[in-house]
Design the sequence.
């Protein structure tokens, strides 16, 4: 089976890159096609991969400011020659699904979300503070790119969604059905500790507006309970200004320290609205409960009363109310661990390989007919 992988861009590390790493491990030797690649901004391990970049990689400043070039990405992905592959798997939250595959190639899109900048623009505009004049200039570009995005979605043979909320978006924006295969979580690295947990709550996140770390900071400050915040981002200074003496910002930490912090947390706080959310599952793999906003991917992973609790609406008051009544001894660490194992990397690999093989088996008779057709 000749497989090619397609990824939006390789100039940052996040959940999308964790999925890509699992795909590379599942299909060793498969080339990775991407719009841009900055080796200094991603894992050094990527340098051993067969990475094939588009002409966009030569644009000035694209590694650090890739969003400046949004209108060009569909054209970049359409320029790739994917002749000779049995399967192309695009791992996409932006434009990777725009590739054009030959008729004999099956294109499977592992959809992290339909392109958020296009289809959830009002929310994106509020979050990024896009002004009135910039918004007016963007409107014709957005209209044109939505058309291209829909056309690209029609060329995909099969969609896979990462959660129920993403499945609903694929149906709404692309008018396509999909199956759900949840992203992989490294449950081998995140394991329960042999010692009792500490008394602090934990947030692990990029410190940017839509992650809503401000809710956790303000709720824990109000209640005077310890909160540790792991991560960096442009919101850090604003969050530090609103934080009380019980809130500490740790910045980036090592992999080993992250596991230790997860293991020792009273609970993991997940206040944002995410498409899936790998970090809460990592916390559950460590045997720790999760307090999450009742929306998005958390609805697929957290079981209220068993592996954690939800708060709603997405306000400081609602989160503080749950924290004030929270007793971590109500939640069995073994139950948290068992829930996390349902999203293990091994489960992801098994489900994805089975899906690919089933698709190819189903399409084989049609390909045979096409091959002998006059």
Sequence:
């Amino acid at each position: 089976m000749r497989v090619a992988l397609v990824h939006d861009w390789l100039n940052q590390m996040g959940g999308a890159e964790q999925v890509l790493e699992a795909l590379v491990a599942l299909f060793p030797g498969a080339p990775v096609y991407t719009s841009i690649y900055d080796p200094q901004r991603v894992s050094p391990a990527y340098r051993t991969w067969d990475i094939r970049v588009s002409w966009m990689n030569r644009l000035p400043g694209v590694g650090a400011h890739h969003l400046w070039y949004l209108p060009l990405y569909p054209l970049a992905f359409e320029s790739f020659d994917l002749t000779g592959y049995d399967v192309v798997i695009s791992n996409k939250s932006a434009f990777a699904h725009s590739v054009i595959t030959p008729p004999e190639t099956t294109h499977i899109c592992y959809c992290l979300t339909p392109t958020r900048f296009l289809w959830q623009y009002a929310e994106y505009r509020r979050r990024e503070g896009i002004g009135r004049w910039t918004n007016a200039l963007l409107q014709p570009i957005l209209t044109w790119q939505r058309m291209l995005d829909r056309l690209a979605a029609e060329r995909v043979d099969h969609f896979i969604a990462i959660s129920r909320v993403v499945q609903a978006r694929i149906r709404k924006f692309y008018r396509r059905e999909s199956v759900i295969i949840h992203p992989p979580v490294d449950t081998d690295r995140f394991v329960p500790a042999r010692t009792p947990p500490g008394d602090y709550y934990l947030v692990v996140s990029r410190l940017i507006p839509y992650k809503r770390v401000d809710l956790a900071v303000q709720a824990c400050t109000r209640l005077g309970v310890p909160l540790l915040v792991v991560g960096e981002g442009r919101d850090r200074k604003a969050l530090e200004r609103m934080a009380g003496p019980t809130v500490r910002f740790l910045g980036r930490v090592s992999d080993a320290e992250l596991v230790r912090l997860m293991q020792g947390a009273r609970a993991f706080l997940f206040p944002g609205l995410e498409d899936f959310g790998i970090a809460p599952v990592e916390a559950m793999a460590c045997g720790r409960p999760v307090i999450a906003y009742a929306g998005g991917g958390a609805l697929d992973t957290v079981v209220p009363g068993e592996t954690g609790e939800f708060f709603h609406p997405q306000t400081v008051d609602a989160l503080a109310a749950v924290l004030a009544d929270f007793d971590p001894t109500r939640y069995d660490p073994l139950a948290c661990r068992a829930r996390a194992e349902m999203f293990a990397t091994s489960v992801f690999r098994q489900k994805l390989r089975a899906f690919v093989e089933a698709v190819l088996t189903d399409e084989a008779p049609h390909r045979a007919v096409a091959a002998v057709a006059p």
Notes: Residues 368-374 have pLDDT under 50 and may be disordered. The CA atoms of residues 10 and 37 lie 5 Å apart.
